[in-house]
Amino acid sequence: MKKLTAGLLVLVLSSSIAVAHAQEKKDTLKTKEIEGVVVTALGIKREKKSLGYASQEIKASALSDGTTNTGNIASQLSGKVAGLNVTTNNNFGGSANLLIRGVKTLGGGNPLIVIDGSPVNNTYTQEKNVDYGNALSDINQEDIESINVLKGAAASALYGERGLNGVIVITTKNGKGKDDGSWGVTFSSAMQVGFIDKSTFPEYQTRYGAGYAQKFGTQAGDGLNNANFGADASWGPKFDPNLLVYQWDSFDPTSRNYKQATPWVAAKNGPIEFFNNPTTFTNSITLEKGQKGKNISFTYENMMSDGLMPNSELTRNNFSLKVNYDLTPKLHSSFYSTMTLQETTGRSITGYSNNTVTGFRQWWQTNVDVKDLERAYFANVDPAIASAVNNYGNVTWNRKTAANGAPAYWNNPYFQAYQNYTSDKRYRSFTYGQLTYDLLNNVSVTGKVSYDRSNLLAENRLAVGSLPQAFGQSNNSIGSGYARRDVLRTEVNYDLMANYKFDITDDINVSGVLGGNIRRNYVNSVYASTEGGLVVAGIYALSNSRKAPLASDEIESITQTNSGYITASFDFFKKFYLDGTWRIDQSSTLPASHNVYNYPSITGALIMSEILDTKNWMNFWKLRANYAEVGGTADPYQLANNYRSAGILSGIGVYNPILNQSNPDLKPQRSKEFEVGTEAHFLRDRITVDFAYYKTKTIDQIIALPVSSGVGYTGKVINAGRIDNTGFEVQLGLVPIKSKDFSWNIDVNWSKNQNEVKSLYPGITNLLLNSFQGGVSLNARVGEAWGTLVGADYTYLNGEKVIDPKTGKYLQNGNQIIGNTTPDWIGGIRNSINYKGFSFSFLIDMRKGGDIFSTDMYYGLSSGLYKETAEGDYRDKPIVLSGVFPDGSPNNIGLSPFADNNGAMGYKTQPAREFVYDGSFIKLREASIGYMLPKSLLAGTKIYDAKISIVGRNLWIIHKNLPYADPEAMVGGGLNSYGWSIGSMPTTRDVGVNVTFKF
User: Which of 36, 391, 642, 938 is the most buried (most CB within 10 A)?
Assistant: First the structure.
């Protein structure tokens, strides 16, 4: 992969220089100005050349024109920003995890999202193995004008405690209308369909069927064999079309095979046929009008999508309004409001338990035809015949015995999809109002109020007839139930700021902001469930509980942060820029002795092209450097012990034990960063380079450190730990060809971050972050990069794997470092070609490194599903594992695949280390072909612009090392987005058509 990437860059760079030299004299287009304006912290507009820190702006066209609509703008940032790592999972309506410049805190962390200078909530929600997505998906994509990524501490210092993980600044569009001042109308419509990328789904062996050993189950009365119904593995007898066997559907009265034995063959329709081709329809209309001093824009967008799984649907309606109006020549007003109404049915289950796809990847019978299961479900769920006899429609391939049709381990996947589905409704609104008054020509005062509110109702169902499973508040194993989570989140920001700009001399001026902010956050969450099952099947309500429900799990918090800030930006002769910022915060979640703290920053930018007069060959060259501090406060209820009700016993309240001991002496966590960089433009912007080097140190992190339960707690809240990040970022822009009718642009992003956990707490060298099946865990370990994978490894002797002489299996060595989830580097290459009305673009997205533990391979190889378990004579003769005995002599013990617990592959023989894979990938992430209809063709119509595009996303995984799965498709957001591949949905190649008309 390294040779491919390096070779491509050398070829592009050399061709770009050659063609640029050839065209330099005849280039008739004006060189774009370097002094472009970008939006920075607090919505402040700055000349890009004056910035002393790294930031990267992405225009709306680069975000959306070249790809299908993902439903979450975060995922459309993949490969487009140096230093920004985007992890997108395949969960229906699921999360996209954003990480800027590496993990800075022990608990991970996402950047702050800001719209037009006002922060918005981007909370990731996961409930009982369901990924409900992150709130960034609520943003109306049609409203976005640009996104500016503030990467380092100096860029985000003005956000104080919230700027530790960087900031994503979103700027919304203003109304423009037509040149004659009349209303403009834009209508866009898009349709897309997905096709499974088969490289991200298992390839099954087709030589052997159900069973844990190569023999059938019991015999029927006529002497024929019954299949191994209760076995959820494919280690059974060899297929033989001349052999008749009673299978699961032989006991289904609605089946054509009822009471009949059928040929023992591999299924015609394997699990991949269970999935649908997901389709998405998106329609939007925008009305806008703009004149000097006033403009208005209204947008409505409707999105309807169905997922890979049966019975999965998502409907989203977005409404937004933006008005800018000058009330007087000196008094300017701005108003923006957006509302999202979303309903989702059938989100995919994540993780191990009750996940249908986990069954397909780990525990399945290759003789089972999923289309027969579909027919069986719809035939048996009919109210006329549904009863306890047929498990209310849950006719499963995994029945316990010939006489007992109850599921042994797995429900019928269609019963699971149509009966045990989740649903959720989300209402989201974000509104701000702003007034600016020009006191003097060089001083203005702005007052602003923003309000962000989201309501989520999430419901979970367990239908009567289901396999008993852990469910609800008690987490007891039951066969039916209903649970719901209601979450309300609000955030209010009050801002008052004064903007100033003064000329000290003709060539020296100073500008800046003096202001304050009050932020109030409110969270109210209630979780409740039935207990003991449902009284009446099909009625999902808390009142339909067989037993008295337990006390609901209620969480309420109100927090406030008061802040003041000041900035000063000095411009010396348009050649040297010096900026300083200072912010002070007061947080309600910290003790009075530590709840006031401040964050400074200082930046400098030197325009070398002006000083050295290099414009003949290098039209712009800037050197920059900065130092800054940012930080973070505590979550609510960390200062004093708090209790949760567990119900009433004999009229007396019972409370759950406190797991984490509080700490009344917490301090804010802090991050300190130093950064240097340079930006250069050559050959009239044909070649642009931006380079940054940074070093970050984060200390006093707020964590719940595990302690011995003998002290009465399992954890203690403390300030501890230090994480260092050091990295490089490179942005390269190339314009190999540029003429009146033809242009070719290449944008390259590359970054490398090195991370190290320097310390935790005296006497502590490891912090457990997440636990996986197979005894594997995600950890922060001193001396290692954050994200260490710990589990069982082989035992080695002189580099050879050691065999147990008693069993012939590998000796395993537990609690070893077996990988790390941190990638070596990430990058992207985007090509954009325009010829007259035609446009063509594609994006190559890359990641090198970042280990992944595959629970699917850990179990799936052992259960005999994958093609590797039936190649050649693997199942027909003893296997001698490669290795040596403890005395160094070669292993000579043969393992029978059947007598020795399922052969030489999988969790019963190999340690977890065998199933850790390199997470590198190269993807054709986006591609599009567009055509802008000529004006002559539109003459005489009311349409003045029309464009049609064919777009695609995830069209080709050019390279990957993880078998049968997408290296990006982790469990969810947050800590679940690192290093764990289990039961993930297959990736789809999405292809769509977009049309846009402007009237």
Answer: 391
Query: What is the secondary structure of 353-406 as a DSSP string?
Result: TT-HHHHHHHS--TT--HHHHHHHHHHHSSTTT-SGGGGGG---TTBSSSS--S
CA atoms within 13 A on the CB side of 83: 28
Q: What is the distance of C-alpha 590 from the center of its chain?
A: 30
Is residue 813 very low, low, confident or very high in pLDDT (cuts 50, 70, 90)? very high
Highest mean pLDDT among 139-153, 155-169, 957-971: 957-971
Cα-based torsion angle of the residue sequence 437, 441, 443, 444 in order, rounded to the nearest 10 degrees: 20
Whether 647 shows a pLDDT value over 80: the answer reads no
CA distance 979 to 968: 9
State the burial class of residue 241 (Cβ atoms within 10 Å of its Cβ: 0-12, 13-18, 19+). Answer: exposed
Residue range 873-879: average pLDDT? 85
Does the pLDDT value for residue 417 go beyond 80? yes
CA 834 to CA 949: how far, in whole Å? 13
Average pLDDT over residues 496-509: 94
The pLDDT of residue 248 is 96
pLDDT tens per residue across span 816-826: 999 999 999 99
Amino acid at 516: G
Report whether pLDDT(963) > 70: yes
Q: How far out from the chain centre does Cα 612 lie?
A: 46
For 50-73, how does the pLDDT look when each residue is reduced to its tens digit (9 = 90+)?
899 998 999 988 888 888 888 888
pLDDT, residue 142, reads 86
Q: Give the tokens for residue 788.
A: 């260490």
CB 526 within 8 A of CB 553: yes
Tell me phi and psi for residue 22, to 5 degrees. -65, -30
pLDDT at 541 over 60: yes
Q: Which residue has the tokens 């997440």?
A: 770
Mapped onto helix, strand or coil, the DSSP state of residue 503 is strand
What's the full length of the chain, in residues? 999
Residues 161 and 371: their CA atoms lie apart, in Å, by: 54
pLDDT attached to residue 900: 46
Distance CA 701, CA 505 (A): 45
Query: How far, rounded to the nearest angstrom, does the alpha carbon of residue 136 sit from its chain's CA centroid?
Result: 11
In angstroms, rounded to a whole number, what is the distance separating the alpha carbons of residues 806 and 946?
75
Kindly state the tokens that stand for 511: 């500008």
Residue 798 predicted with pLDDT over 60: yes
Please give the Cα distance from 786 to 413 (Å, whole number).
Answer: 38
Beta carbons of 629 and 670 less than 8 angstroms apart: yes
Going by their DSSP bridges, the two strands 766-771 and 742-759 should be labelled as unpaired
How far are the Cα atoms of 86, 111, 150, 600 from residue 169, in angstroms, in the given order?
16, 10, 7, 20
Question: Averaging pLDDT over each range in 95-104, 196-205, 349-358, 969-978, which range is the top one?
Answer: 196-205
Question: Tokens standing for 147?
Answer: 């996104």
- Give the pairing of strands 851-854 and 980-981: parallel
Alpha-carbon distance of 550 to 552, in angstroms, equals: 6
**Residue tagged 């088969």 (tokens):** 198
Structural element, H or E, at residue 62:
helix 60-64
> What tokens does 288 get?
């806008």
Q: Which two tokens stand for residue 778?
A: 């995600």
Q: Is the pLDDT of residue 923 over 50?
A: yes
- The answer to whether the Cα torsion of 569, 570, 573, 577 is positive or negative is negative
Instruction: Return the pLDDT at 728.
Output: 95
Residue bearing tokens 């309606």: 317
For residue 892, pLDDT beyond 50: yes
Q: Give the closest residue to 865 by CA, choosing from 413, 365, 408.
A: 365
Question: Following DSSP, what letter does each residue of 729-741 receive, concatenated?
Answer: EEEEEEEEEE-SS
